[in-house]
Amino acid sequence: MRKIWVLTISILMLVSLVGCAKSANVPQASSTQDKSLVVATAADLGTIDPAVAMDNAAWKISYPAYERLVDFKGSSTEVEPGLAKSWTISTDGLTWTFIIQDNVKFADGTPLDATAIKYSFDRLMKIKKGPSEAFPSLESVTVVDPHTVIFKLKTVFPAFLSTLATNGGGIVNPTVMKQEKDGDMGQNWLANHTAGSGPYVLSEWIPEQSLKLTANPNNSGDKPKLNTISIKIIKDPSSQRMALEKGDVDIAENIPVDQLKELKKNPDLVVFDTPSLMVDYIYLNTQKPALNNPKVRQAISYAVDYQGIISSVWQGNATQMRGPIPQGLWGYQPDLFQYTKNVEKAKSLLQEAGVKDLTLNFMYSDNKAWWEQEAQIIQNNLTEIGIKVNLQKIAYAAQREKIDKGDFDLTLGVWSPDYADPYMFMNYWFDSKNFGLAGNRAFYKNDKVDQLVRQAASVNDQAQRTDLYKQAQELIMQDAPYVFLVQKNYQLPMRKSVQGFVFNPMLQDMYNFQNMNK
Q1: Residues 54, 440: contact at Cβ < 8 Å?
Q2: How far, CA to CA in Å, does 471 sit from each of 156, 277, 441?
Q3: What Rg, from alpha-carbon coordinates, does the chain have?
Q4: DSSP 51-114
Q5: What is the pLDDT of residues 108-167, one digit of tens each?
Q6: How many helices and strands (H and E) does the chain possess?
Q7: Under 8 Å between Cβ of 368 and 315
């Protein structure tokens, strides 16, 4: 076995945009008074259980409440020590041994040891919901002693170390079993409580109004400069903007792009702006009548006015996606076929499919400020080719529930990678094992694509994996299970008093609260 010290190792699959990421303002010396940060978001959350939650909005709360074996380092996709201070890897890449930091405690004072790590991953794999998909080859976790734990993989998984930094890798206090009901392993309780060792704990949740994080007195790291983090649910973007300008909130997440130019003129505000790997797209439920025909799905992709969306919705602060893998992540194919608006081609494809007088329901939620405008544009685009679209705006939690069940025709979605590997897009979105919130939200099945993406996930050679993913992408573009809309810049308006925010492309819409200050 060869020793790899965590202070020097880095993940090989780095994204090219890392050099573009930056920190907002330079932290200043903290005063001794208590400090609070207020963040405005647009929608309430579903579960925040790290073994269940599959969206960044929930991770905003759970990520700072739990600790992981490794963490993403600053603004890069490299990893650095978390709970693990070092590790070794067997020559066949299947056995990983981690040495755990000393004197770590959960928020309730319970010691965090190797047994807790085994419990957390055993729980994750037993619950077997979306987050477990980040560990597809995990076979077993074994405790050697209180500070040593061994992970055994069934097959080589190239992204394993990076996946340990994801939200699903959060270490949960085994005492949650006291809250177990009907064999749920504490899922019901952890849906709206935290049981970690991170710098913050969830201390209050008033549904549809606010959530509050408070500093964890038993966290073994440096004491956060911010004692409380308040997340206010403000659905109306105009109200968010007013609250930001008045100073009632420090950060506003859902200000439309067309208003950011005005906010930049305000001397009390700054708009953080950097490239990201976040993409915006439409799920087409390929199991539904008409939508189960690739020609109908191609017609929809040809109907969309991509450049119109970029100019009107995004004010030029986005680019059209070229296939599933975003630019800046290895595996991106710059010469891949790309749909453009072509009304006549779309009409011709519908005619070839024998489809006319088609009516589709287009679902979206209040989670993203721009979705309503996008939905209206796309409704008009599809009307041009003879498809009637009924818009259905619902609550975010209800949207996610319907997506998981496949209870929709079309719906809008966003996605950003949790680790720097195209597996995050290709295997989540297109492997037919992942129907629903687990990732394949188009309920898409192509046996050849299944074969290609699964093979790409089982080898370490990046050139071979790139070729396999390229073949899969070419088939996917023909099948058109999604409409690949835009890859957006990350823009976030905040008060100038906010200091120390660092954007990590793996942690979209999440915050390094423990390093921030005012």
Answers
A1: no
A2: 21, 22, 21
A3: 23
A4: TT--SHHHHHHHGGGS--SEEE-TTSS-EEESSEEEEEE-TTS-EEEEEEPSS-B-TTS-B--H
A5: 999 999 999 999 999 999 999 989 988 989 999 999 999 999 999 999 898 899 999 999
A6: 14, 20
A7: no
